Amino acid sequence: MDVLALLNQKVFLGQEFLTWLWYFSESEGGLELKELGFVELALGERLVLGPAMGAEGARITVSGREASLAEAREGLRRGKLVESLRLGLEIHGEEYWLTLGAAELNLNGLALPPAAPQEAGQEGPEGLILERVALIENVFKALEGLLAHFLVLRLDPAAQKELRGAMAAWAQEPNLN
Q1: What is the pTM of this model?
Q2: Total tally of structural domains belonging to the chain
Q3: Residue 177 included in any domain
């Protein structure tokens, strides 16, 4: 089996993960991760839902600060899953924004916190580059920790059943945003 066919078969996992991130950002607000401490999650200004793998249907795109998530919640109730979302992470008090895609679990549009002002004795551009690399590494550690947490829940039959029930109840709640 070639890699593309394998990815196409597993796209549901990315959709479920991104849908869970939306749910988790609203229900828990964040997660304590070993290397990073508490990582806070926030849903950004763009959310795209589409049909679950193998199903037919239209996409729903919600964007902008004033956009209501009511239509997106209705899409969830009808079996749609998140295909793409803008996600905010707060790590060590610093804010990161990124867009995740479900099909390949790809990361786009990463906005890092501003660089710290250079201090006397710092190594010039090398220090700035190393700082930016460390910030990018924080994002990948956070995403890896979130995905690992999701997979533990997803692969445990009892936890999966409880999670599906909690997410179904959450999707039925009236939109508070």
Answers
A1: 0.86
A2: 1
A3: no
